[in-house]
Amino acid sequence: MPTCQRSLRTKSLNPHRGLSESGPGNKHSKTSLTIDGITYVVDTDSQKMKSYDPRTGMQSLLVTPISKASATQRLGQAGRTGPGKCYHLYTAHTYHNELEENTQPEIQRTDLASVVLILKSMGIEDVRSFDFMDPPADEGLCQALELLFALNALNKKGELTKLGRRMAEFPLDPMLSKTIVASEKYRCTEEILSIAAMLSVGNSIFYLPKDKKTSRQALEEIKLKFIHLEFDHGGEVQIL
């Protein structure tokens, strides 16, 4: 429904009230997906965002404040197909003084090893001079190049090796790609594919019923049954 035709009723942010009418900050509120029946949206001023620290080489899922652009997008989830309200659970001062204008581009906050590997496979050798729409930090690019060199995907000149070309064929993290390619030598490809698939989905394979008959502690006890004492990822193989 066009914006001009929406019957969204919302009150402007009021620093004295500290609350405005708006909608839910879940995964659907971050997209342009229209869901029938959405009448109320509660914006909590937070989001889970994948973030990569090039200094530690660790990637984690952090709870961070949203941007003003995200707040506007969440507002639009209510009243798309009918009257609706959105409640912002933060003050006008927070909105105007603490929220960034736009969300930081994903390429500037994630591991760049896969990006660099793809660029190299396309024949783009000087990735640091590549015209990115949102240029990532040099530190992240350098660490990605170092990782690919350590995996033997690049030679000393920074050129893609035969192994690197095979790794680039997999839409996976380079370390998982290297593991799959190497599994052929050790004749354990089937097991490695299972482990790679499990590592890609994380803990989402475990489901905690909403009936509350199964406690979180009981779920953890079930997970312990799959722990393999001989190698780290034996549990993933046992589950499958």
Automatic annotation (TrEMBL):
Gene3D superfamilies, A to Z: 1.20.120.1080, P-loop containing nucleotide triphosphate hydrolases
Bias (Polar residues) ranges: 1-13
GO biological process: one example: mRNA processing
Pfam family, one: HA2_C
Protein name, as recorded: RNA helicase
Family annotation (PANTHER family): ATP-DEPENDENT RNA HELICASE, PRE-MRNA-SPLICING FACTOR ATP-DEPENDENT RNA HELICASE DHX16
Region (Disordered) location: 1-32
Swiss-Prot/TrEMBL keywords: ATP-binding, Helicase, Hydrolase, mRNA processing, mRNA splicing, Nucleotide-binding
Domain Helicase C-terminal: 1-123
Substrates-to-products reaction catalysed: ATP + H2O = ADP + phosphate + H(+)
Highest taxon above the source species: Eukaryota
GO cellular component, one term: catalytic step 2 spliceosome
Organism: Coptis chinensis
Family annotation (PROSITE patterns): HELICASE_CTER
A Gene Ontology molecular function term of the record: ATP binding
InterPro entries, alphabetized: HA2_WH, Helicase-assoc_dom, Helicase_C-like, P-loop_NTPase
EC number: 3.6.4.13
